[in-house]
Amino acid sequence: MQQNTLKKIAEALNVSISTVSRALNDHHSVSENTKEKVRKMATALEYEPNTAALQLRTKKSNVLGVTLPTINNFFYDSFIAAVEEEARKNGYSVMIIQTGDQVEGENLALKHFRQNRVSGLFAAISIETEDLSPFERLKESDIPVVFFDRVPVSAGHIKTCLADEAAAKMAAEEIIRKGKKNVLALFGHPHLSISQQRKSSFISTLQNFPSVRVAVEWPENSDNSYRVFMEAWQKKGRNTCDVVFCMGDMILIGVMRAIQELNLKIPADVSVIGISNGFIPKLYKPTITYVETSGYKLGKLAYEQMEKLLHKQTLQPEVFVESMLVSGESL
After folding, report:
1. I want to staple 183 with a disulfide (CB 3.0 to 4.6 A). Which of 135, 154, 214, 273 is the partner?
2. Residues 93, 163: contact at Cβ < 8 Å?
């Protein structure tokens, strides 16, 4: 079927079948004018290339992989949306695999991507990841890897990150500006560099103000943050915290559930500030003050890095999406 269609394109444009084939493969020996004519005619005749044959010949597919812990939060949803938009513009499709935040699931995903000869991989590592050799095997197979959000601590990797330290610093400075004294600070899993960076920046900023007391917990998810806040408030009430800082959206969801069950008034009884993709804080009344860390912007930036890798261009090994404070009514 493909050969017949190639013949029809060649006859319509009065060129050889080999010229059509080279044009569709963007070969340098064919002029841009001819390539454009061939592409338009191929579209009109609904030509579909033999992707299996192309994959065997080039040892690559037109697929980009994404591996991440889970897609059940808005941050990763928006990251995927941005990557998919850019991939589609550039002739790629996207294959997504969740790891369940386990290294076993991650290794299975990497094996699947390698066997399917993806052209490149976007990866947010699992909580359990310590050995990066499975990612190195992808690179040895000429599959570039762009780490995002949850990235390795070690050097020698391409990383696209949120400005985690700056975001936590902004949140701490806003707490100081509002005159809060008792802070309950809730962070993600301590094994992750993103959690450690945000915690370190947040605490070091508040340490310059001895009158501010900080209690740190690592609830990681919404259920644990609900439990931690409930226990803290029922034990000491506002003596425990006059403001709660939530490192991410899932933590914020748990805290807000506890606050609503306790019938607390925001900000009269307790204030709330978080680091967020921006969707969840606007669902509450009053709206939650947050420092924006955009998954969508991160996806766009990560794709820029991938394009440079695919085209063997020079790039910075680590780039950041800047954050900004979005004022709500919760602080």
Report:
1. 214
2. no
pLDDT tens digits, 84-140: 999 999 889 999 999 999 999 999 999 999 888 899 999 999 999 989 999 998 988
Q: What kind of fold does domain 2-49 have according to CATH?
A: 434 Repressor (Amino-terminal Domain) (1.10.260)
Name the token pair of 163.
């400005």
d(C-alpha 34, C-alpha 318), whole Å: 39
Please enumerate in sequence order all residues whose Cβ is within 8 A of that of 6, keeping only pairs 6 or more positions apart, or say none.
17, 20, 21, 47
SS3 68: strand
Q: 195-204 burial, b if ≥16 CB within 10 A, otherwise e?
A: bbbbbebbbe
DSSP per-residue codes, 212-270: -EEEEE---SHHHHHHHHHHHHHHHGGGT-SEEEESSHHHHHHHHHHHHHTT--TTTT-
What pLDDT does 24 receive?
77
Give which of 192, 186, 260 is closest to 225, Cα–Cα.
186
SS3 category, 139? helix
In this predicted structure, what is the pLDDT of residue 6?
Answer: 76
Distances in Å between the alpha carbon of 303 and those of 63, 221, 312? 13, 28, 14
User: Does 2-49 match 164-292 in CATH topology?
Assistant: no
Choices 3.20.20.150, 2.130.10.10, 3.40.50.150, 3.40.50.2300: CATH for 61-162+296-323: 3.40.50.2300
Residue type, 72: N
Spans of the chain, pLDDT less than 50: 1, 52, 54-56, 58
Residue 265 confidence (pLDDT): 95
| pLDDT tens, position by position, 260-281 | 999 999 999 999 999 999 999 9
The structure's pTM equals: 0.76
